[in-house]
Each structure stands twice: as C-alpha cells, then as structure tokens.
C-alpha cells in the first residue's frame, strides 16, 4: 500500500465522474452540504443516520452495512471514492469503515470538499439514481479497531496518539472549538498518549502533507516508535480515522488501530487513569 | 443541537445552543459588499496552532466556542482570497469579528 494506491487528486476525480466502475461518495455529519451542491455523480452517506447504529453506541453491523450499500447501488466490484467536509474527517472515517468490512477498492480524495470548493470546481445538485445491488460485506476486521480494554492495556506499552487539538489534550477544552463545550466527561488525555493533532497532517487546503513531512511529524517531532503498534483516538473517532489513514494507509504502518470510543467514552469511564497538562 | 458528532455545521453551531459560560467568537465575511458563502473560517491559537474550522454559512457567518485568551481567525475563500483578524475571547462573552476580503 502506498499513497498512489489510496489517495487521488481532484483531476483524477473529475476524469472519473462518468466512470461506471467508480462510485463517488460524499460523507458528512451535516449532509446539507451535499444537498446544496456536490461533485457531479456523487451519492451521499450520512455519518450518523447511515453509519451509526440507531440505538446502541456502535456503528452499523455487517448486515446493516450490506443493506446500506445495496440500497445505494454500490457493488463489491466498484471502486469507491470518498470525500467530505471537515478536511475529510468523516470521509476518512467511512474509508476506515469500508476497510473494516473488507472493501479493498476504496480511495480518498485529497483535500476533500474544501479543496474542491476553494478551486472553484463544478458542484451539482442532481442526485444520481443507482440501481440496487446485492452487496456482501466481510466480517469486521478486528485488527483495525481498538476497544476500551485494549486501550487501557496499551498505556505505557504501545504508541497512543491523541489527535485532538492541544487544548482538548491538556484538558482546557472538552470538544473542538467549533462546538459548545460539554460537561459530562473529565478533561485530559490517556496517560502516555502523545498529542499529534490531526491538523498537523494536513495542509491548509485540506490535502495531506508529503510522506517525508508526515514521517518527520510522527517520528522525529512526536517521538512515535514505528516499531511498536499504535492506537489513535480523538473525541468520537473521526479525526483519529484521519490519522489512522495517514499512519496505516499513507505511511504503511502495519499495526495501527482506531479507537472510535475515543474521549467521549474514555473520559466518562469510572476509575481509569487520566493525565492533565502537556503530558511530558 | 447536541454535540453527538464533531462536525462543523456551516456558519457554526447556533449560539442558542450555547450556555452562558461559553467564550464565543463569531462574525461575518464579506467581499465587495456581499456575504461570502463559500469559504472557511479557521481559529488559530498561539503560534498559529490550528484549533478549529467551520465552513461559512449562507450569510457568510462563522462561530467558535473558544476558551479565554487571544486567538487568530483566518478566512480562506475561492480565488485565493484570505484574511486574518486577532481577537480576545472570554467566558460569558460573544466576541464579534467581521472580516472583509
């Protein structure tokens, strides 16, 4: 796996808008962006309504994923090109999710919706009709997802990467600064976690930094030991999916997991250790 | 709205969702007298450290929920348009910053 296998630019996307083997998918939490205009031929996935279990805190199971993609007209043979707002957070989350359920032909659009908009490329309000398919998902690949007990056992043993902003990491803020600050959880971070904000992996236009810059960021500056396994987390698991994409897909690190429970779970657990401040 | 997700709605979360102890930074972006509806506002901390970003709303608006202190708001829009403003935020205050590109 390398950058060219998983990441494409806007020119590539434009050239494949009418490619019958490519399904372009916009993924957002707030899908009103799609409704106002999207890359021509793109369908949408709603991060919450489509990808999360409506009752339990978990994402849709294998059967639910199969029903979702079948209904949206995505087949197992299609190449799925994902993009979205928020610097591709939710698109990266969906990418991780496609990988979890065994869909290998999946790509991320570098820069996502933001670069597409800043470049003044065409947006369409036409919603494509795709004939129903019969999609079959694999069992969830547990090697890509960390649950809380594994995270607790990883303290001081593996690389833990907290990809939230420095103010969330230190406990000064409990949510990103574009959201009201919540009170239910304790602030801080998992002990021994290094803070490498997701934003350091991205340029201002939302594209990913070069592989050399990314290696310098995680190894030289943050001090991650690439010889160890790694777990990334944030607040709910989408920003850390962005970092999972960088470490696992762009930098080809073999054992990287996303902890999608992240701080909204860990910061509410009774009796677990929490570290405040800079952490080192 | 509840903060179930981490996404940044266009224009920022409605201020009515905020309790009185939030440190709000908000404003509007205009270009040649009209609101800029396609663009992004970024909130930067000390040393230009990225903190948050929202797409501009239909009125060119943006809103952040910061912490007390000094912040930089940087606006990006198509055509290479950009601008920066330095603002001070504090709990219980709504700091207004309007940006002309």
Short summary:
The complex is a heterodimer of chains A (280) and B (101). With 280 residues, chain A is of the alpha/beta class. Chain A contains eleven helices and nine strands.
Walkthrough of the structure:
Chain A is of the alpha/beta class and 280 residues long. Chain A has 11 helices and 9 strands. Chain A is globular. Chain B is mainly beta and 101 residues long. Chain B has one domain: Sandwich (Immunoglobulin-like), CATH 2.60.40. Chain B starts with 22 loop residues before the first strand and ends with a strand. The interface between A and B is large, with 40 and 36 residues.
- Helix proportion of residues of chain B, in percent? under 10%
Give the second-level CATH assignment, the architecture of the largest domain in chain A.
3-Layer(aba) Sandwich
- Please state roughly what percent of the residues of chain B sit in beta strands, choosing from under 5%, 5-15%, 15-25%, 25-35%, 35-45% or over 45%: over 45%
CATH superfamily of the largest domain in chain A: Rhodanese-like domain
Oligomeric description of these chains: heterodimer
Task: Classify the fold: give the CATH topology of the largest domain in chain A.
Answer: Oxidized Rhodanese, domain 1
Outline type of chain B? globular
Mean pLDDT of chain B, to the nearest integer, reads 87
